[in-house]
Amino acid sequence: MTASLDLTAVRAAFDGGRDYLAACTGGLPPRASRDALIADIMRSVTHGADAAAYSVVVEQTRQHAARLLQVAPARVAIGSQTSVLVSLIAASLPEGSEVLVPDGDFSSLVLPFVHRGGIRVRCAPLAELADAVRPDTALVAFSIVQSASGEAADHAAITAAARAVGARTLCDGTQAVGWLPVDASAFDAFVVHAYKWLCAPRGVAFLALKEEFADTLTPLHAGWYAGADPWQSCYGDAATLASDARRFDVSPAWQAFVGAEPALALFADADMSAVHRYTTGLAGRFLTEMGLPAPTSPSAIVTWTDADAADLARLQAAGITASGRAGRARLAFHVFNDQDDVDRALRALR
């Protein structure tokens, strides 16, 4: 992927960000997304919805996502939520399959397997996930960056262990894509919701699939937009589904994609290596000055034990938007943040 926007240009695309250290909860829209949404709602007041125009926006957004994930657009399905796309994979596993997941991973990744029935879900610590793969493991499902802790998975070791026993891999990049360069082709399936680090409206998610793995899946959510020609798939039972990953599409939430298209274009054009250095640099400085241990792999998400939520309360009292998860305080440093945000957070906690 060739970057056409340097870090300065990416940062300049945002108006907000001061004291907002919660991209891991929800990203802030860039100006272009705001403007696109306002223009769309103003048009709809007098002219209604233009389904054909919305479909163009959806397909542009799919192409941006494909560039970000370093896969072909034909390998990317669209959806509304992570759990919806994960349930597609859960439903297609053979009876009795074992699914291995990390302890405490995000529910939208885990619960579709837990409640599918007829399969076994086994948990292991993230750091030991590769060693926990067994010959009877059918699928390893994990987030590349953990939501509760910000810990990054050793995805190379996990995928190698899975391949050694013929197991498939499903990776959730929701807490990574937007600050961490990723190559979705390293996994059999890769899912990402765009409303966090990709700064899109909620309701836009993507599933990148290896072709041979896609062939094992049932298009459980097939509707009119999953057709080879969606405009010929609106009625009856004779519609031909798309031959590529589009057959797994969930009918798009049009307005959400209107806001998502400029945001995804921004990050698809960005120098993600520079974004990674910048965001993890802010997080690393915060860790150092707080005397907190550095993670094995640099992360843009910083967490520490805060069982009584006292530190979270201090941050909020100082006007800083942060979050708390699983008994830990959590800060996220994105491109719209800067060293002043680090300073204010440090002052609030000291």
UniProtKB/TrEMBL annotation:
Q: Identify a single GO molecular function assigned to this protein.
A: transaminase activity
The record places domain Aminotransferase class V at 55-285
Which InterPro entries does the UniProt record give? Aminotrans_V_dom (IPR000192), PyrdxlP-dep_Trfase (IPR015424), PyrdxlP-dep_Trfase_major (IPR015421), PyrdxlP-dep_Trfase_small (IPR015422)
Give the UniProt keywords, A-Z.
Aminotransferase, Transferase
- State the name under which the record lists this protein: Aminotransferase class V-fold PLP-dependent enzyme
